[in-house]
Every structure is written in C-alpha cells, then in structure tokens.
Amino acid sequence: MKRIIGGDLPPASGSVQFLTVGEESAGQRLDNYLIRVLKGVPKTHVYRIIRSGEVRVNKGRASADVRVAIGDVVRLPPVRVSEAVAAKAQMPAPAREFPILFEDEHLLALDKPAGVAVHGGSGVSFGVIEQLRQARPEAKFLELVHRLDRETSGILLVAKKRSALTNLQDQFRERETGKTYLALVGGTWPANKKVIDQPLHKYLQADGERRVKVVAKDDPDGMRSITLVKIADPVLLPLPLAGEGRGEGRRTATLLEVTIKTGRTHQIRVHLASAGHAILGDDKYGDFEWNKELAKQGLKRMFLHAWRLQFDHPATGERIALQAPLPAELQQFTHHARSPSPPIRPDRL
After folding, report:
1. Phi, psi (5° rounding) for residue 160?
2. Which residue in 149, 233, 282, 287 is the catalytic one?
3. Which is it for strands 2-4 and 17-20: parallel, antiparallel or unpaired?
4. Is there a catalytic annotation at residue 149?
5. What separation, in Å, do the N-terminal and C-terminal C-alpha atoms of the chain show?
6. Does residue 242 surpass a pLDDT of 50?
7. CA distances from 44 to 12, 40, 133, 222 (A)
8. What is the CA radius of gyration of the chain?
9. What's this model's pTM, rounded to 2 decimal places?
10. pLDDT value at position 3?
C-alpha cells in the first residue's frame, strides 16, 4: 500500500507502509521526516529502525542524514504506539487563527499571545502550529521557523513551503535576522551595561524541568550567548518594597529593548536575571515574592514581548521589517503602575 504524504500516518500500524514523498517534504532529513509522520513513536525507536536497515528509501538502506526528494518511496516497518498516545492522536487540536502581521504564499508572521505554547509536547497537548493546521486543513505545509517560550508574546514565523523554511532557518542560524524584544525588569538598569556576553548551559532539574544557567567562559558545556540591551523607559511601580511586608513603597523598573545575537533557550530571561534585573512576572528566574505582588497589581504574565523582527524574504530577498504592538494587558499594567503618566508607547521607542 502506498500513501501520498498530505496528512499524517495512523498512530499505529501493524503492517509495512510505503510512503511517497511529496513536495512539502522534499529536502528534509530522513530522521526528521520520519519523526514528523510517525507521531507518537519515540525518537529512539525511529533511529533504531533507521540503523537496523528496516527503513528503506527507493529500496535501499539510508542513513538518518539522507535528504528525501520528491517521489522517493520510503518503506516503513510495522510500528506501534501506546494506547494513550493513539487516543491522543485521535483528538485533534481545536482550530484557531491568530492575528496575522504578514502573509503571502511563502510564509506567515503571526502575533502569538502569551500563555500559548508554539507546539505540543512536554505536557502540552497542542500549540500554535497544531491549532493553525486544524484551522487551515487545505494547507499542504505549515512548519514553525523558530520558537518562542510559552510565556512570551509576539512575532512568530511559520513557513508555508519547505524552501522558505530552510531559507529562514539558515538566516536565523547565521544571525542574519534582527530580533528585538521588550522586557520590563526590576530595578534601575545601568545605562553603561549594553552587552551581555556570557555562556549558557541547559540542564534538567530533578523533576525533569528544563532550566538554563550562566557558566564560566571556559566551561566545556557553555554555549556562547550574546544579548544587547538598550534602555527604553524607566518606570516607577507603586508596589511593596522587599522586606517591608505589605507597606506601600516605590520600586523601580526599567523597560528594555533587548536584541539577541544568539538564540539560546531562555537566553534573555537568564542573562537579565544574572545581571540582577529579572524580568517581572518570570516564574522560573524571577523574584517570586515580588511576582505575587505584581499579580495583585494586574501583571499576571511575564513581561517579555517579541516586538520587532527583520529578515530577508526567502523568495524575493527583500528585507522585511515587522513589529507587533505591546499587548493590551502589558499596556494596561504599565498605565496603572505609572498613573497619572501616559502608558508606554513602543512606537515611540
């Protein structure tokens, strides 16, 4: 039996499958191709059936890094997934569209709200990409170009063609894009501190939760990470000072424009916290007691927003500059905190 890849495989298959590679998958590595179509099958098993030779491309053995082409016939051995995974696969994500900042036949840029994961996994049943695919069943190809933390709002790119995906990912990898965030941090940021160049190391806590920390420059596990910081606006917040119980005081905060030259996990959050100015509302690296008080004042999320993004259009080469306005809940919080001053207007930054 042959299948043309236009949808997903059944979550469990007790017989050999033959798949014909379509245009939307051309150029993809074999391992990534299989991980995508064999939803629910552990990656370790995917690599095992490749190494064993049970996966064949055009009747021949193939390594994980081989790139599939249009018309290639891929043989898959019988695979099984757990009943729980199979049941989950039969429950599609609810269809949802998101505010669109730019769209053509090659890509779309959307304004992701905070609190929504970009994709399912790690305890999350579905994310932006799964909901978008459900909302656009006619779309042959929709893939995330990059990631944003679940708690971060702002610009997110989705490719509508594989050629666009590879081109844009190359631009991110080669640091040819311009990514600027707005972050409200505790304290008064020192005006002379404009560059943070500190290696980061990703690790897992005992409970399996992912975390990142700054390490020494000679640490073999450290990944060089560069963050550029510019003061956008100082802010006074009428919130209790540390150690003063529930008495009212004044704490300062600073609105920053943060441009990242590398795209490490939690890079902005960890770099700013390591400098002694954690992002307000950050539940992983922030001031937890102050976060509780901030929630009472109306800040119920992390104040980090993917504000501006520049890249070269993958088909025309034209430089595209996008901007996502500061979300209403962040505008309202800063307006409340700064009253009677006017709210922050990022279009003036």
Report:
1. -110, -5
2. 149
3. parallel
4. yes
5. 59
6. no
7. 16, 11, 26, 26
8. 23
9. 0.77
10. 41
